[in-house]
Amino acid sequence: MLLMGMGMKYSKHHEPKYYIARGFGLLTIGQYFNFLRDCLPNLISYWITGNKNFIARSMQILQADILTFAGFAFLLLALMKKIKLSDNLILFIGIIMNIVAFPLFKIMKSPDSFLLSQFLGFFVLTKAEAYFPLCSYFVFVAFGNWLGGIYQNIANKHKFHNRVLIFCLPIVSIYYYFRSHYDFPILPEYMSVEDYCLCPGPDAIVSCLANLTGLSFYYKIDELFKGKTPEVITHAGKNFNQYYMLSYIIIQPMQTFLIAAKGEDFPFKMKYPTLMAFMVLVLCKILIDMNDKYIHFTISTLKNPMRNIIFSLIWIVTITISGTGDSSQISLTNGITNETRI
Questions:
Q1: The pLDDT of residue 299
Q2: Of 35, 16, 18, which is closest to residue 311 (Cα–Cα)?
């Protein structure tokens, strides 16, 4: 999220219309991803087993996941650019949004309807599939946008990153030590579902400092390799979204089908999670390389008229599946809340 904000400063396109197009594209790709990862496997599992729980879980075609968040973040930035807000003001608004999100979640009662609760969950935390609500997480994009404006004008980046490590690393280390070992007044339990989805106030600010510290570490690593970063790192960086989407499309349907067939998750994944992760990464790299060499399919770079056709189909499928859900039956008690899933 922070790098997305920084990347906007390095883009050749700064017009609001470009941000709108980019935001809508990300929202559409997010729906395509949700369909492949969650909706389709659950519909197939329902067809095989007749278990109505899978129908409820197919409603995960609507969820505030990270790609959906990115789409809304671009749209919000388009509005802010249109009214010519400064980077400082955008960052201030992002901080205020994050601060307000926590008490709003405590005060606001989530609607009983999953569909209505999910719609609100795109913006504030509800008890639906709201992992990355806009109000909670926009602060990271705003911080990245602010940092990108400053970073371009820093002449001595070596000195800058030295100062970041000297200043930020102790703060981040001390904060996370106390945050993980002791209860903080008002703040939710560290790494609880609420903390994960809200990232409130101090957690968000220190998380920004932690990301900045990480950037400085990576800068030092790049210096160490004299700019010749190992291919395994550059491959991951260039294909970050593909790794993210493919890994989920491998893992999530497999989990769904195993639950449908055996009533339990893949035991190997639970016993050997590191080995499982390594296997998934290797498989992702093979698939990405095969696509680059032979298939050349990327939904984000489709050209018209094919782009309009595919994007329209994605939204038709989304609306059709969402519209078939009876909100009186698909409620927050059907096992699709973020508490039970995480």
A1: 83
A2: 35
For residue 305, whether the previous peptide bond is cis, meaning omega lies within 30 degrees of 0, is yes
- Amino acid, res. 317: V
In a domain? residue 47: yes
What is the number of domains present in the chain? 2
- First vs last Cα of the chain: how many Å apart? 21
Question: Taking the model in full, what pTM does it have?
Answer: 0.89
For tokens 């990232």, name the residue.
Answer: 199
Q: How far apart are CA 118 and CA 150, in angstroms?
A: 36
Look-up of token digits 């909670």: 136
328 shares its domain with 286:
no
Nearest-CA neighbor of 10 among 148, 117, 160? 148
CA distance 65 to 75: 16
Give every CB contact of residue 30 below 8 A, 6+ residues apart in sequence. Answer: 65, 67, 68, 70, 71
Residue pair 80/292 in contact (Cβ under 8 Å)? The answer is: no
Q: Are residues 334 and 249 in the same domain?
A: no
- Residue 130 pairs in a beta bridge with 64
| Position 151 in a domain | no
Q: What was the pLDDT predicted at 222?
A: 86
Is 26 found in the same domain as 103?
A: yes
Q: Does 115 lie in the same domain as 138?
A: yes
Q: Is residue 124 part of a domain?
A: yes
Domain that holds residue 257: 245-301
Looking at residue 109, its pLDDT comes to 85
- pLDDT of the residue at 269: 65
Q: What is the pLDDT of residue 268?
A: 65
In a domain, 54, yes or no: yes
Same domain? For 336 and 260 the reply is no
Which phi-psi region, left, alpha or beta, contains residue 253 (left: φ > 0; alpha: ψ -120 to 50)?
Answer: alpha
pLDDT mean values, one per 10 residues, the chain (342 residues)? 91 89 94 93 92 86 91 96 95 96 90 85 89 96 95 93 96 96 91 92 95 93 84 86 91 89 72 86 94 86 88 93 60 42 38
Residues 118 and 41 in one domain: yes
